[in-house]
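LOG
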Amino acid sequence: MSMEENKAIVRRFLEEYWTKRNVGILEELYEPSYFEKGGRRGIEQAKQGHQAILDANADVGIDIHEVIAEGNKVVAFFTRHGVLEKQLGPFPPSNEPWKWVGVGIFYIEDGKIVNSWGLSDWMGLYKQSGVTPSLGQLGVRVWNEG
């Protein structure tokens, strides 16, 4: 597939999932053996994680700022937004708008997303929610050297 076709796949995933709340898009665009680097494995785990976000939020959407491709890699820079109505992990319902900036790297093979990884502004999300995170919640490892 061309780089433009790969970009269209990622753009379609982000828009369908975030704006149209279509979790079923995962079955169409993800390879069955899909995995997130350092996280979920398989479409079902991905669907559960994505559905939890959608179930806790109203007015979920995404603003895609940039999509860049090289070979089978597609990088997307975006801002997700919504209104948290239900508890989601450490985040209490606030019924206030939130924004969450992120970058995702998606790997495409034969028209399917085979794996991905990303970086999100977790600290900004914690700040908006009024929650003080622990180092573990931020993914920080504290090394004890004796």
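LOG (cont.) second protein
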Amino acid sequence: MGRLILVRHPPVALAWTGRCYGQSDMGLSRAGRTMLAPLADHLAALQPDMIIHSGMRRTRSLADNLARRTSLSPHEDQQWRERDFGSWEGRGWNAIYRETCNAMDGMVDAPDHFRPGGNGETTCEMIERIRGALAVVPRRGCIAVITHGGPIAAVRHLLDGTRITDIAKGVMPPATFIIMEF
């Protein structure tokens, strides 16, 4: 049996606050950058055997910090990227809500066919992508996966067996992590 450390990246650049950023590749905020060293120290103390990250700048920076503390080489796996929000990417959540009202609830209410932004990834597609990413993670040792809120919620759904309609409850705040046995 293995241990999985699921880590959400630190806060993103302030210009992206309140915006849908999904698979957009922005850096960290000043506060997020100051969290890197203490978070990497905490994660290093858990003695991971492997580091995986999504390849986005906001995950790579933490993976590189952790790698320096553990002498491990981080592995990039783009399957661990955040959900693709389609044409909503980069737009403010308030503007999206004003335009679509409660249509964004479709991510939970219609997980098999609602596409955010009209051309984004359905909740079920994201979960299946994460199922594939999880399938190639070694089942022995301690694996640190530095990723995003959606993928972490998807893993929690897959491993805990929670209802798909409760998936949003599995999204964790930035710069936090959860340890799961798998």
